[in-house]
Specification:
Helix content: 25-40%
Strand content: 15-25%
Largest sheet: 5 strands, parallel
Shape: globular
Order of helices and strands: HEHEHEHHEHEHHHEEEHE
Number of strands: 9
Oligomer: single chain
Distance between the termini: 41 Å
Structural class: alpha/beta
Number of helices: 10
Bound molecules: xanthosine-5'-monophosphate
Length: 327
């Protein structure tokens, strides 16, 4: 039987009971596959890698070695959340690598979006590979958060989004406990494993992170403005009850300035663009009609709290023809 094909008899995991049964089954399978050996996992903090981490911690505890690489392009508080949940709450064996300078130095003056994606993806592999080599004598397995759509779409439309790869010559055996699951099932499993909603219900976040939202060549000042404005947007969407109604939302900071005026003085600062979309499959998307009062509150807060920003825009372009991301 092709182990990459979901059997037709496999029931859709929709309830805590079904999730529990799946978890028990996978815990036994992983223990059988791994024995007393160690398993390495790149833990990004996204839904898939977080669920695999929690599942493996349940199965093999400290035999799992999680590596979290902070590429400096995470949203505000995200790396901290990974540490809080996995190190502090689940007592995981977690290696945290702050590679911010390494990534940002490589990206200086690089303005082409695909080039930026390539650099971020490659650098991620180099950093992870270095770590894997240090542990190679000790580790035999590599866990991955592959899910069923990744297998189905691996040569399809999403291929251009794939970043990174495996340290192939290290010859790890793969552990992929959720590879036959759909995203909604992964979330049910994550909830059953006790992961917080911020992780389980997290909106999609591109692999290159804020790197493709800080348009053109990334600079630290615009990256900081992007991170702060994104955090304000998330906070206000949360308060307005929109966070679980809108599929994906974020801010974008372009690489051109605009004129403003503050306290009687003229400025030449950055605009912030708000992007919010609803979609089923990300192939097409519509823009929700956000209440004016919510947009106004977000605008006021960004202008008051984020240094270097003098203008806020709401992008009302559907996909097609505007993609969800700006780059
Ligand atoms: P677009 O911009 O193509 O985005 O309409 C569709 C969905 O894909 C996400 N996206 C990415 N995800 N790496 C990823 O892992 C990427 O390079 C990338 N670019 C876009 C985007 O956030 C949206 O959910």
């Amino acid at each position: 039987m092709d182990s990459n094909k979901r059997p037709e008899s496999m029931a859709r995991i929709t309830t805590p009971e079904l999730a529990k049964a799946f978890i028990d089954e996978q815990v036994a399978l992983v223990r059988e596959q791994v024995g007393d050996k160690k398993v390495l996992l790149a833990l990004s903090g996204g839904v898939d890698s977080s669920v695999v981490a929690a599942l493996l911690i349940k199965a093999i505890g400290k035999q799992l070695v999680c590596v979290h690489v902070n590429h400096g392009l995470m949203r505000k508080g995200e790396s901290e959340k990974v540490i809080e949940v996995f190190q502090n709450q689940l007592d995981a064996n977690l290696i945290y690598i702050d590679a911010t300078d390494r990534f940002l130095d490589k990206l200086v003056d690089v303005s082409d979006p695909e080039e930026k994606r390539k650099i971020i993806g490659n650098e991620f592999v180099y950093v992870f590979d270095e770590e894997a080599r240090k542990l190679a004598d000790d580790v035999d397995f590599l866990a991955q958060g592959t899910i069923y759509p990744d297998i189905i779409e691996s040569d399809g439309v999403k291929a251009h989004h794939n970043v990174g790869g495996l340290p192939e010559e290290l010859k790890f055996e793969l552990v992929e406990p959720i590879k036959l699951l759909y995203k909604d099932e992964v979330r049910v499993i994550g909830r059953e494993l006790g992961l917080p909603s911020e992780m389980v219900d997290r909106q999609p976040f591109p692999g290159p992170g804020l790197g493709v939202r800080c348009l053109g060549a990334i600079t630290r000042d615009r990256l900081a403005a992007l991170r702060e404005s994104d955090a304000i947007l998330r906070e206000e969407f949360d308060k307005a009850g929109l966070a679980d109604k809108v599929w994906q939302f974020f801010t974008v900071v372009p690489d051109f300035r605009s004129t403003g005026v503050r306290n009687g003085k003229r400025l030449f600062d950055w605009p912030v663009i708000i992007r919010a979309v609803n979609t089923v499959d990300a192939m097409s998307a519509t823009v929700p009609e956000i209440e004016w009062s919510v947009l106004k509150k977000i605008t006021d807060r960004i202008l008051a709290e984020v240094p270097g920003v003098c203008r806020v825009l709401y992008d009302i372009t559907p996909k097609p023809c505007g993609t969800i991301e700006w780059e």
